[in-house]
Amino acid sequence: MSDAPLLKLRGLEQVFDTKKGPVAAVGGVDLEVKAGKVLCLVGESGCGKTTTARAAAGITRPTAGAVEFRGKSLTEMGAAEKTAYRRAVQYIHQDPYAALNPTRTVASTLTAGLKRHGLVKSRTEARAKAAELLQLVNLTPPESYLDSYPHQLSGGQRQRVNVARSLAMNPELLICDESTSMLDVSIRVSLLNTLGRLRDDLDVAFLFITHDLAVAKYFAWDGEIAVMYLGKVVEHGPTPEVIGNPQHPYTKALIGAVCEPDPDLAKANQSAEQLRSAEIPSLTALPAGCAFHPRCPAFEPGLCDAAEPGLDRTGANGNGAAGGRRVACHIVARDQRRDAVRSAADGRDDRTLTLDAVPGSRRPASTGATEDPHKSPGAAWSA
Amino acid sequence: MTALDAAIAKPRKQFGETFFGRLWIGLTRSPAGFAGTVLVLAIVLFSFVGPLLVNQDNPTDTTQIWTSPSAEHWLGTQYEGKDTFTILVNSGAQPIWVGTLAALMATFVAVALGSIAGYFRGRIDAVLLQLTDVTVTIPQFLLMLAVVAFFEDIPPWGISIVVGSTMWAFLFRSIRAQVMSLKEREFVEAARLQNLGAARIVFREILPNMAGFIFVNFVISVNQAIYAIVGLYVLGLMPSGTPNWGLMIHQSWGQNFYLNPVALPFVVAPLIMIVLFTIGLVTMGRGLDQALNPRLRER
Amino acid sequence: MTDPILSVRDLAIAYRTGRKESVTAVSGVDLDLYEGQSLALVGESGCGKTTLGLGLLRLLPGLGEITSGSLTYRLKDGRRADLLTMKKEQLRRFRWNEAAMVFQGAMNAFNPVIRIVDHFADTLRDHSDGRKWSKAAVEARAGELLETVRLDPDRVLQSYPHELSGGMKQRALIALAIALDPQVLVLDEPTTALDLLTQRSIVQQLHELRKKFGFTMVFITHDLGLAAELADRVATMYAGRIIETGSARDIFYEPKHPYTAGLINAVMPVKGARPALESIPGYPPSLKAMPDGCAFNPRCAFATAECGQDRVPLELLTDRPLAMHHSVACLHHDQVRLQRKENANV
Questions:
Q1: pTM confidence score
Q2: Among A51, A237, A302, B16, which residue's beta carbon has the most beta carbons within 10 A?
Q3: Which residues of B touch A151 (CB under 8 A)?
Q4: Could you tell me where this protein is found in the cell (chain B) (predicted)?
């Protein structure tokens, strides 16, 4: 496990002024992306995931908190450092149609950054490099794409050109904002496979934004998922654990709501637990306490609507291992405390809710998620 | 790496992919646009090449005053006995080149200032906007009259400057608005995120997307400028040296030629030229709009 | 077995692209829909599924036209009627009374300056046969319909569309579609652009409505999960043709067309282990340049020279009752296996 994070969001807040008053699109997000790793932000529209990504990419300036790249806050960077950051962190837009200039050829789009930053010496070299980039994103043979205009390409091909453009800068981190959501199923898989190969071969880290849990699971299997709701992270942990054994009621609801491409499973799923309300509260009038409580099936009056739950590590008092699971839910926290008391009383370890270990204690051998979360830090220091 | 080597050899652009290629396709595709272009080209040829072909020796001939059209004088003769057709052929060049120059200057200034204001916003934008507010509130034609009256013997290029300076403000505003909206587009954001630099972003990412818009506005400006220039001549505010459509109308009007039936060709010919040129420019502009507007062209 | 409620035979739909040119978006479609069934038309963008869906009600936009084939409905009174020979007035009565459409994009399907209640008034008055709808009658009926889709009439009726959330709009749209008790409901991408939890509640709603009213449903979707959830039968479309049709279990567990299998292989599941998924190589053909023979053959792993020659017709694979058949348009369907099934067992 690498030590220093590549990108760190520290208490990130983004408040927009609107006619109805200030709206906190993002209300205090702490996340890290490590070199060569994937962090997936999932959530429904309006949860603040795109706002978070845009702040991380330096497109917008957060109203509070900081975006740190290699340990240095963006606001404290000098011009040279800022340029280095700009090259190292690349952003890929959602809409492959809007993100390419309709009047420029693929070659012109790809070589602009190369020439600007002196990465190539001549036109010929720039063109050769552009061809190389197209091969990297599986647009082969490159010569049949180099002189195409965007309108001559399909959505999947355009998105590949966008990825190639970002690769021209030799990035260390790609921020993908719903970059596959406008593509058809089969095209989406092949683009995700390509991105996965880039991560493995070029050691590029990803901050991957999506509303689609299946995409998050597929792409971030070896990484982490953070689930956002109304501007806050409500659950965060290694992907197989969050998807396989969700803890927060909102995550559970999301996973339960997915339509699986399996008719038998779908029939079994029809009795899934209903939310108390289908309406998402407005960001201008957030509910008191836990923002999810008006919809939460596990809601307990007096507990959930009183104070805002912190994003706590499950199983420990907040000082668990880095990369462990964090959940912002009063009910989960309370059950945890009870279990801890009980297991302390019984002198044995029978926690079923938690996957992560209390420092010094042994990792539970078998839990709900049987898939091996082999990147789990718990294993690193199990006795 | 053979595939890469092959890729390096850049093929020539297809004609249809270049700006002028698209221009040509757009102008010839729709029948109306094509007709407009033909009309404009015909009048331009008539006015610029025509003078080289007709006999420029057109003496005053008191025996030939106000004759009807004949094989010798296609449009008859005028009050000095000169050939009306020869005068008409010589009359188009000045309004056209002066108008085009005025429109060029206005478009250039509007594009330059409009993209600066729209892209950088801030104080420079506020100042420029104030300036256009002032410019727009002054009655354009009165301003022209005042300037022309003040500088007697104003040269043709001076007229271009005067006319152009009254036209740039409107164009500036629409260019600025376009730049502001294009600036928010994702491909511009992508370019900004790659630190491509303001100059490249404005000139290579934003402006090419407005090429059609700018060109169409230029064509319309030419039309307006010609109207303004002809108007100044009609009012008799300009030196009466070079033959000119406006001068012809001025004479017809000022000396009551329009009451004389035999003078009809002399009175009507410049009017027809102006009307045809206007119709040509407008239909050509509409055809261009369809050809160059990315929204209409793509998908 | 009774007659199908809707029979489509050799339907072709083209869009005019110029004065004399047109492209064929849908061709050679044969389809039978039996009472109470729900059919999913699945496929990727540009495969013609929306065009076909709109064609089923003759709701094609200005440049589209049905160029051949027949569309026969069994009406409520038991008569059979060919939609293609109907006059304008007959068609107006047919729509909403016999078959209704829920258009794609709940966000834009309502006129933004008209209150919800007036949308109901317009629909009820326009499509009712002779019946006069008073203001009170409209409000009563609309209120009843909104309650059916779990919306509060007091809050919704007098609202303008922009005052409702996406999910509420979609519900109101469904209520509007069933206002005159149609037998057939065509839904175009009913959950696209909605949030996950809202999608789930709409799916639940459609289940309930089907149970309650028993209407026949056709829904158009690119989301195979939705098809698995809502459909009894699935028809896969590729390049303007139906290439496979069968029960949901046939399609999801034993697809026989390489394209269907490829699609199902490309869908990412949320539950269970993470499979390594494969995409279908290449891109769908342009409508202007269709490959000869089977349109899928340039991308197909099983393709032989024969595939590129003649159009491959749908072949009946089962001897079940016609309402439940499994048919496929592939010469090599016996070689097609769902890879994921095998992988999953490893």
A1: 0.82
A2: A237
A3: 298-299
A4: Cell membrane
